[in-house]
Amino acid sequence: MGVRRQARHVSVKDVAARSGVSFQTTSKVLNGKGSVSDVTRARILQVASDLGYVPNLQARSLVMQRTLTVGLIASDFSDHNLSRFIVGAEQEARRQGYGVIITSIEPEGSGTEYALPAMMERRVDGILLAAPQMEDDRALAHVLDRTLPVVSLHHVPGGGVATVGSDHELTGYLATQHLTSRGHRVIATVTGTRGRRVTQSRLRGYRRALEEAGIDVESDLVDEGAWEIAQALAATLRCFERRRDITAVFAHNDVMAIGVLSALRQMGRRVPDDCSVVGCDDIDMAAYTSPPLTTVHVPFYETGAEAMRLLLSMVKTNSVVPKKVLLPVHLIVRGSTAEASRTRFRPTP
Amino acid sequence: MGVRRQARHVSVKDVAARSGVSFQTTSKVLNGKGSVSDVTRARILQVASDLGYVPNLQARSLVMQRTLTVGLIASDFSDHNLSRFIVGAEQEARRQGYGVIITSIEPEGSGTEYALPAMMERRVDGILLAAPQMEDDRALAHVLDRTLPVVSLHHVPGGGVATVGSDHELTGYLATQHLTSRGHRVIATVTGTRGRRVTQSRLRGYRRALEEAGIDVESDLVDEGAWEIAQALAATLRCFERRRDITAVFAHNDVMAIGVLSALRQMGRRVPDDCSVVGCDDIDMAAYTSPPLTTVHVPFYETGAEAMRLLLSMVKTNSVVPKKVLLPVHLIVRGSTAEASRTRFRPTP
DNA sequence: GGAGACTAGGCGAACGTTCGCTTTGCGCGC
DNA sequence: GCGCGCAAAGCGAACGTTCGCCTAGTCTCC
User: How many CB atoms lie within 10 A of CB A17?
Assistant: First the structure.
């Protein structure tokens, strides 16, 4: 039980005292400002390093009026996509010398009550929002407006907030178009949570691809998987109960696509021989499902980096630019999709 | 391009001026210290809320000598297990009113050069380390020692640092013992990265279970999967090339277990009829592989929460207690394991 | 009616910086 | 020989808090 008091930090005054100069001169040297003779400069630097001087950012930001720190509010750090985004954002911040302080907000509503104040108390220079399920939270939007530079991963009501994301409609379009171009005509889709914008966008892309191929959009081919394996599995079973002639399924993300694969296996349908499957997001595991999943790559890491770049540029110029950035997505063809002509009908056991 | 200067924050002096008292009195009211009459107290509180006063934690921590902030250094936020850990830690910190500032360190060596100074500059009250691959980094250990309260998820050389983790040897033991108790005698294991302590511990558990069952430990049944699906798949194939009589495989984590399942499928061996598979970690997906994976549950979330609890208790008492906490793990039986008697030998195609 | 205790509030200092303004000392041109 | 300009360093103030100590006023009690 080694209890020991924490050693006091060495301050610029300590360094000054040891070097025989005023602490302001020391400060000048450490910041490379003002004119100081080479010999004293060297002496001060030497002493500073001997004493292990580490500047106190708290004090510094008090006078500078900026903290070199940004807040990152996320709904769930363990969400795979979100965590890629976070890594991208954090690395970009680090590259630019900014610190990142995080808070997660509880899914059941307003963890915002804690998150925002915590960030404000710490006087963050800007905020990065990554809480997709808050996209309709007007309270949040209200608080954010007119105060700080904010960049969000998702839509924020009111529209004063800059957004960086990927083109979800294109995602849905590319996935579906890949299937129609391979001759599929009866294409089911297992969607994300109904109310969410991503879902609506991906659904729009799905419809557009079908229409372009001259295929009617039929509602019994659409079912909700709500981003979860188990629900996607169930949704797939429901679709096939309604329509036995489905030859392809587009899942609104890869995790659900894995559920779709499970469902098909369970029904005794082979992939891609009996049914093609395409997901989106391109998670690591997508390359290792059986068969490997055809999917649309969504650049989460780059989105995070880009969002942070935009945020920091706003912070540095002290301006607010409510622009929307969309990053490109692209199709990755693997083994889970095949020509419709190869598809042989096999009755459900 | 709506450029607008950032509004200055309202300070305790602003509130004081408006309420007609000194700013120190305002401070007293806001902190509930000293004696202030009910009427002025009410007036001050009213003004504070009218003006939207938010205390400046920077200034506060300057005089209080603590920042109510802890640093979290992690190797990779997008690692599934690590991110569960982080969520647990963050939530516990939040519950206790502490902020969390993060840095990731690059796998290729010493991102520490940036991470530590960044934390020190911000005068964090303590540091939580979650960078398993740094477990042998003496430089890191040296810097950490004797300065701040530090709790680590992994071993730190020199041993002055508190550690919270789960019982990896027990994990390996439970997984393997489950297999031996079901009559398996030829049990392969696909390990994590060789040099790592987790790997060594899980391997020790594996050996102990075998010995208890009176089975010789044979080196041609051990192969390295290095935590990755693809490598685990390859390792499995190699094992079966050496030994065709394997009836069960223990993978050092669930991700690799998925690779093992792929390999078996590829070889035409059915799970669990021809071969049983058990993983560990209990990731979300484990319940949805086909067949659902028998695994050992490792409480990452709780580990994070517990680590943060320990860290904060050290911070609050200003003491350093280099204790080691081990959290319990338990077996979860799903569909990927069966009695050895059911196992029928099928030659590799 | 006066001493003592208590209440309400003010004041100065400190925390560790940055920044702009002064002061000191010295070489130099006329 | 005198003022000028410039380099080197010091000084005071400010950032927004907390904290300990001081003071003025009121209440209580004998």
Answer: 14
Query: How is chain B split among helix, strand and coil, in percent rounded to 5?
Result: 45, 15, 40
Per-residue CA distances from A166 to A1, A171, A201 (Å): 52, 8, 11
Give the integer Cα–Cα distance in Å for A164 and A305: 10
User: What is d(CA A124, CA A121) in angstroms, rounded to the nearest whole number?
Assistant: 8
Residues 6 or more apart whose CB falls under 8 angstroms from that of B128 comprise B70, B71, B72, B73, B89, B150, B151, B152, B153, B307, B308, B311
- At B159-181, the pLDDT tens digits run 778 999 999 999 999 999 999 99
Strands (E), chain A: 69-74, 99-104, 126-130, 150-152, 162-166, 187-191, 222-224, 248-251, 276-281, 294-297, 324-327, 330-332
Q: Are B59 and B87 in contact (CB under 8 A)?
A: no
Prediction pTM value: 0.91
Q: Which two tokens stand for residue B182?
A: 């079901």
All residues at 6 or more sequence positions from B281 whose CB lies less than 8 Å from its CB, including other chains: B81, B253, B254, B255, B295, B296, B297, B298, B300
Protein-contacted positions of strand C (CB under 7 Å): 7-21
Query: Cβ neighbours of residue A191 under 8 Å, at least 6 residues apart?
Result: A199, A202, A203, A222, A223, A224, A225, A235, A252
Q: Is the CB of residue B284 less than 8 Å from the CB of residue B84?
A: no
Question: What is the Cα–Cα distance from B278 to B254, expressed in whole angstroms?
Answer: 8
Q: Which residues of B touch A5 (CB under 8 A)?
A: 318
Nearest protein residue to nucleotide C7, judged by CA and C1' positions: B35
Angle, in degrees to the nearest 10, between helices B23-31 and B12-19: 110
Residue B14 CB burial class (10 angstroms; 0-12, 13-18, ≥19)? middle
What's the rounded Cα separation, in Å, for the pair B31 and B34? 9
Query: What is the structure's pLDDT at A5?
Result: 46
What kind and span of H or E run contains B70?
strand B69-74
| Single-letter residue type at B180 | T
Q: How far is Cα B148 from Cα B125, in angstroms, rounded to an integer?
A: 7
Distance from CA of B12 to the nearest CA of A (A): 13
Q: How far is CA A211 from CA A208, A217, B43, B146, in A?
A: 5, 7, 65, 68
What is the per-residue pLDDT across B96-151, written as a single tens digit (0 to 9) for each? 999 999 999 876 655 667 888 899 999 999 999 998 888 877 777 777 766 789 99
Best mutation target among B12, B92, B122 (most A Cβ atoms within 10 Å) is B122
Residues of B in contact with A69 (CB under 8 A): 101, 122
pLDDT in tens, A299-342: 999 999 999 999 999 999 988 888 899 999 999 999 999 998 75
DSSP string across B225-290: -TT-HHHHHHHHHHHHHH-TT--EEEESSHHHHHHHHHHHHHHT--TTTT-EEEEEE--GGGGGSS
**Chain centroid, CA A242 distance in Å:** 35
B330: closest CA of chain A, how far (Å) = 22
Distance B45 CA to D21 C1' (A): 25
Q: Which residues of A touch B118 (CB under 8 A)?
A: 94, 99
